[in-house]
């Protein structure tokens, strides 16, 4: 699991921030954080997305919907142009 290899349990000068996606707030995930003494930052579900890749995918999606590619080759070319 990525988290197990990333967080240093001896350093308590941090809090875990997540985007409230269903997998992140599942009973299993929340119990794992509690069992491993990981403080989860309270964050509203409607907050602006801080994950830049999500914003990039949204931009690409909006641009592609304007262009309306007709096949995979066109799609690939349009993505590269964006």
How would you summarize this macromolecular structure in one to three sentences?
The protein is 49% helix and 0% strand.
Give structural attributes.
mainly alpha, 82 residues, single chain
How would you characterize this protein structure?
The structure is a single chain. With 82 residues, this protein is mainly alpha-helical. The protein is built from four helices and no strands.
The first-to-last residue Cα distance is 34 Å
Shape: elongated
Order of helices and strands: HHHH
How much strand content do the residues show?
Answer: under 5%
Question: Could you give the topology of this structure?
Answer:
Blueprint: H1 2-6, H2 27-35, H3 52-67, H4 72-81
């Amino acid at each position: 699991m990525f988290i197990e290899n990333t967080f240093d349990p001896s350093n308590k000068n941090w809090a875990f921030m997540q985007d409230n996606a269903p997998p992140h707030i599942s009973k299993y995930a929340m119990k794992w954080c509690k069992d491993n003494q990981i403080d989860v930052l309270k964050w509203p579900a409607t907050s602006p997305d801080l994950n830049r890749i999500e914003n990039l995918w949204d931009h690409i999606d909006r641009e592609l919907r304007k262009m309306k590619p007709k096949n995979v080759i066109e799609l690939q070319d349009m993505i590269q142009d964006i």
